[in-house]
Each structure stands twice: as structure tokens, then as C-alpha cells.
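Hey all, sorry for the wall of text incoming. These are the two entities for the joint prediction.
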Amino acid sequence: METTITSLIEELSKYLETAQITQNETLLEQHSKDESYHAPHKPLAVIFPKDTTDVQHITRCCSQFKVPIYPFGVGTSLEGHVIPNQPGISVDFSLMNNIVEINPEDLIVRVQPGVTRTQLEKELKKYGLFFPVDPGADATLGGMAATNASGTLTVKYGTMRDNVRTMEVVLANGTTIQTGTKAAKSSSGYHLNGLFVGSEGTLGCITELTLKVFGIPEHIAAGRATFPTVHQAIEAVVSVLQAGIPIARMEIVDEDSILQVNQYSELDLSIEPTLFIEFHGNKSGLAEDMAFTEQLFSDFDCTNITFESDTAARNQLWEARHNLAYAYVHGYKGRKMMITDVCLPISYLADAISHARLMLDIYGLPGGITGHVGDGNFHIVLMFDPHDEQEIQFAQELNEKVVAYALERGGTCTGEHGVGTGKKKYQQQEHGEALTVMRQLKQALDPDQIMNPNKIF
Amino acid sequence: METTITSLIEELSKYLETAQITQNETLLEQHSKDESYHAPHKPLAVIFPKDTTDVQHITRCCSQFKVPIYPFGVGTSLEGHVIPNQPGISVDFSLMNNIVEINPEDLIVRVQPGVTRTQLEKELKKYGLFFPVDPGADATLGGMAATNASGTLTVKYGTMRDNVRTMEVVLANGTTIQTGTKAAKSSSGYHLNGLFVGSEGTLGCITELTLKVFGIPEHIAAGRATFPTVHQAIEAVVSVLQAGIPIARMEIVDEDSILQVNQYSELDLSIEPTLFIEFHGNKSGLAEDMAFTEQLFSDFDCTNITFESDTAARNQLWEARHNLAYAYVHGYKGRKMMITDVCLPISYLADAISHARLMLDIYGLPGGITGHVGDGNFHIVLMFDPHDEQEIQFAQELNEKVVAYALERGGTCTGEHGVGTGKKKYQQQEHGEALTVMRQLKQALDPDQIMNPNKIF
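and here's what came out:
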């Protein structure tokens, strides 16, 4: 492999500048891991493309030398997506971070894959626009598309797949394609856009994204509602969904997580299971939606409900929610974080969360439950001691039990984090014969297995 | 081929009842065509599967004898999808028409592919639910998924692809897969669901669909607004979209089409470019949305706007819109209908429709413009004399010019009808290198080209 990488770098040097190719130890180290508990592996080199042409050269050269490519955004993955677990190169998109076009008339933007979520948000605000996919981390848009990320606003605005209109993708053989058009809908040919979003870099490198954006809603009201039990809170969520109230956000944070949030964000929230909710719309419509929600919540013994329509107060409320994972990392120094990520039909959600809490208690691991319960998606944030073999074992067993519970009820092992290496072992059970079809598609588009190999499959 | 079909029928007879296999001339004739102008071709036989196992036997036998399969719902396609343009068998799903499960708690239903839109609607009404994809025709859900159908409600509720949660599909080799899960979202593996919806029977036969359903909105208000010109009407549409008003339906019907509607539905609507609109929500929210819309419309010289919240009046309004294509067929007896179907970024929509009207006038063909303008999708319904070579030529040229106009502006050649055979010639221009990728996927999953061959590609 050492002579191969030398020849590859020699070949790449014909097309790229010296500064775009590095084997610096610090950089290799930085590209060896993500934000999760997965074991790091250093790449042989890190390459920084500046444009699509560079990416074409990189894929052609890597194809020629059969060296794997591991695309890298900012490394906020939670399932090991960016880790080079076979000898290969890391392709870092941080130099491709231009917002190419903001088109308020068509409500679309074009961005390079290295643009981060908050970078885009800041720019869109100037136009009265926003992009509605908000995972906790300040991930790149390329990474978010690769994993079909979602977040707190997904219950109203959808996932990345729903908000990517088309992408430019460089395939393993160096060919560049557009996965869709700029039209709002199409019945023309196979839906490559849906296939490439969520394909985790295993079918090609995303080099540009055209995204849907939305006008910042005229009126926003956010609120917090507390309940005696998580079970009652979730039943309240289900009743709101069934009533068809167009909720924009609906998040559960359990007692343990409220405790972490209070400590990390210096807040004084009541230590009870809490729903964080938000409504978008016109003034009178919101008032009626809030009143109806309050009425439904009272059927489930809601202990307190407060609304904030002031922007600063709302932002503080959601910042607390978004910082939850970091609150745990901060609160349990020396421990590693594992985040489960199942998603189920909503009728099973309350019981699934009770089961998850029970598992946490049985295994005696510190952690709490949070999630985008409007979608049926919840997370256990659990903190384990990476030097304690039994705790590692327990954490893994717990994850397996939570996943098994979801799969037995028609759910999925990952609602938004993706498969990477962490969820590979559940793919056969979840997909059955469909996994064979996925392998056939991978084989058709990447016969030499150079695009992020050994991920998903 | 004659001996092959005899052997195939002999083999199929081992698994199916005699009545499920027919070579009756009337039935062959009935399965030779769709509702459009495309030339009919009779199948060698028509097979009526009763369940998934039957479909597995059919695909295995057809694979063995390399006889093409042409899936058939009720034949409402407009682009020749169901036409056996190579010698093969038509597989008619009309016996697989059970609504398997209605699950109001999870807001999903399971149906067999032969269930029609109005059959489902009738049943869902009993539960206070509705399914939001409403093409004009009373198509089967299987056919609607195959073409990624959409309709008047798509601007709010999305296309078939957005509303199919998972499907059971029998592949060319007889393997049966589930394309997704029952969870509201997933980042697990490739998005096969999005790939199979809209694949027009070229990758497999749909044998069951799990669909999202919605509670019938608490309040619905529908209205009609007239404008001096189509251009102003479309500019009014764009302003409503940009203002983020959550419109549920937004349809244009031009003067010529209003004339047809009046005649066919015995109405007396003012002969002006008209927007048919609808709002779903709570009472006070609707009032505010309607007032804001009225205000925006007045900026574009709206001549009259009326709202109906009475159910019967609303139904009459939308029935008139839904019957538009039939109104043309009725109004121009002896002529054939061609419906164009482009979709563009909304900023180009007003000019695209002006261009379309100009083309109709230049070629001197009778017809009008209508469409789901909230999505940027519009149709020319044009009526040509099938015995007049020059009119046929003109109709085709017109279609080509309208498609070229859309493709040059980042649009698509088909917003909702699909490719079939009618839009094959535009695929290279629309998709470029991506078409090669589509071919590779087809080759991977149907190497013997037995699933609806020669469609899309």
C-alpha cells in the first residue's frame, strides 16, 4: 500500500497544488475519527479539493490505483461514516464552502458541500429565508445530505431528502451527474436524487447541492409543556398528530436530560418530562392551534405549559435543546457518548420509550432520553466508561435491544444518523432481501468498491 | 413467439386457475392501450394475479421464458406505460383490490395495487381520513405509485413518492422485497422506496403499498379568483408561494378550458383566466390566510374572488376542475387528446405559459391550459385530428417546443404523467450522464429486460 499511495500522490500532484495534499500527522489524526465512540483509523493522506474538477481528478486517480476514498465534512457523524477503516485517503471538502447562489424567487439555493448549516443560516437570514433541516451539530450540508440528516423541524418540513432538489455528484469512475432538476416535482426517470441522498458517500462524492428554502414564518410561538411521566407526554404528542395540528417542532426531553441541560446552559427548568414545541403560521391561526394543543395536553395531565413568542427567549429555549448532547459530554467528563437512534410508527412510541428507560435502568448506565417524537424518532444519550469492558458491553447490548424492539414493530434502526459502521449489523434484519438489491446497486455504480467501502454493507 | 407463449401459459397453468389466464380478443384489445394518443399493441395474453404468490409465479415463469411483463392497473396512463409494444403479457391487478388495513392511530393504510383512488377515498371517509394524491383519473394506487402521480393537493401534501411509506415489490427474478419501513423517516440503507416509486414497472411489480393518510381538515375553504390575463394569475400564484401562505390547492384554468368546463359540467363560470384555490386549517387561521391572499391577488388586478366553505359547493367546484380532460374529449368528439406535462422553477412559470399559449395559436390547434401551478406544473390539453397527418405533426412539434422551453430553464419534461414511451426522446437531454446511471440500475435489477421493457429508456 505504501508504494501505491506514493504513486497516487505523485499522480494527483499533476492536477492539484501541493498544499491540497497532506500526510501531516495532526491532520491524519483529525481525519481518523468522528464525534462518536467508534474506533479511529488514520487515512494514508488527506486531500482538499477546491472544485468539481479536482474531485473528478481525485476519483479517477483513486479508481486507477484502486485506493478507497473517504469523504469528510466536519466529522460530526455519530456512526463512523468518515472513518477510513481500510487504507485509503480522506477527501476533505472544507475548501469547497461557497454559497453559490441564493434564489429567493424560486425559493432555492445552490451550495458547495463544505458549507455548514450555521454558515447557510446566517446568509439566508439576510433574505428573510431559512433552511429547515437542523441536526444538533453544525454539520456540512454535504454530510447532512449523505446521511439524510433531519432534526427538530422535520415533523413539519421533512428530512434532507425532502429538501434537496438536485445534487451534482462525481461517481467512482469520475463521471459527473445531476441527480434531479430545479423543478418542484418530476416523474421523469428514476429518482436518483432520493437514492444518492442518504447513500453515505458509498455511490459518489457530492460536489454541489440545490436546496429548498423557506420564508421565515410570519409568526412563531414556542413552548414548553411538562408532564408527570414520559409516557403521558408521548400520548399527548400522538393526540396532537392525530388531530392534524400543523406542529413545527415537537421534542421530548426526559428528567435526566433536563438536569444536564440545566447544568450546561445554566437554566432552572423544572425537572420533569418536558415537551419542547413550536408553531409556525399566521397570528390568529397560531392562537387557535396553541389553545387546541393546550386542551389536548390537559387530557394527559400536563402539569404546566408556557409559550414564548419573543425571539430571544425562543432561541434560548431551542439552544438548550440543541446543546443536549454536548451537555451530556460536559456533564460526564472522561466517559464516551453513544446515541441510539430508532424511529417507529407513532402508536408504539410511548411503549418504546418506556422500554428504553427500563433498559437504561437495568444496565445501570448514566443517560437520558430525548428525541424528535413528532416523527416517532428518539435517542438514548448514554455515557459509558471506555476503559470499562463491562460498560462497553452493556452499552452495546442496550443499543441492540432498543433496535430489536423497533425492528419488531416495523420501525428502523436509524431515523437520522445513518448506518456508517455502527448500524451495519442490523441491515439484514431490517431490510431482508432488499439488502441484496442495495448491494446490486452499489456493485453497479462502484464495482471496485472505492467509494467509502465497508460502510452500510 | 407463438410456441413460447403456449409454453408459458402451460407453465403458468400449474400455479394459476384457468380463469386467471385469458387470450380473449376483447380483453387483449382492452389491454392494448391507455387513455392517450399512443398507438395500441395487443398483449399475447392477459393474466390476473390474485395475490403476491401469483405474481411471484408469473415473474419466475416469464423470466424462464424471457417473455416481457406489462403491469396494468385501469389503463389511465397518458404516456403509453401499459402498452405491450413488444410481444409479451399484460398483468392486470384488478383482482388484487383489497384495502388490507386502515390504521388511524399511525395514520397509515395498507392496500393492494389494484385499489383505485375513489375506492380508497370512500373507505377512508368512514374514519375521518383522506389520501391526498388526486390525479384527475380514477387510477389505481399501484399505477399512481408506478408513475409518481400527483395532483391538485400536491402543493401542500406532496406527490405519491412523498406519501408511499413502503411497498412490497416482486422483482424480475421473483424475489419479493419491502422498499421501506413503517417509520415516518429513516436513514437506514439506500432509499429503495424513492427509487421504485416512479420506476414505471421497469424494476418490478408492486404487490402492496403502505400509504400515509391524513385527518380530514377541520376547516376547508375553496375559492375561485379571476384575472385579466393568465400571466397576472401566475404572478399572483408566485406571490402567494413566496409569502409562505400554506395553500392546499392552487390551479390555473384558462379561458378556453373554462368554456369546456361550462359546457361539460353545465356551469356558468365567467370566461376569464381563473385560479381555483383551497385552504386547509383552523377557522381563524383560514380567515387570515384568505384575507392575505385576497390582498396579494388584488396587486395583480384580480377581477373577482369568491370563497365556498359549504361542502357541496366545494365538491362541485373541484369536480369541474377534475373533469377538465374529459370535458375536452367530450367537447371535441372524433379528435384525440394530447396532454403536455412540463414543470419548471416557479420564476419561469408565467413566461412558460405565455409561450405555450403562443405555440397553440401558431399551430392553430384547439386546446387550453390548466395545471397545478403551485408546483410549477402545467398542462396543455390539445385536441388533434388523428386522421390529419399535419395536425399530428403539429401536435408533436408543439409538445417538443414546450418541453425544450422547460428543459432549457432547469425544468422537467414530465411533472406527474411519467415517461412511458411518450417522453423517452427527452430523457437524454434532461438527464445527460445520469441517464447512463439509470440504465445501469435497470441492468442490475432486470438483466433480461422483462419488466415493462422499452419504457423510460
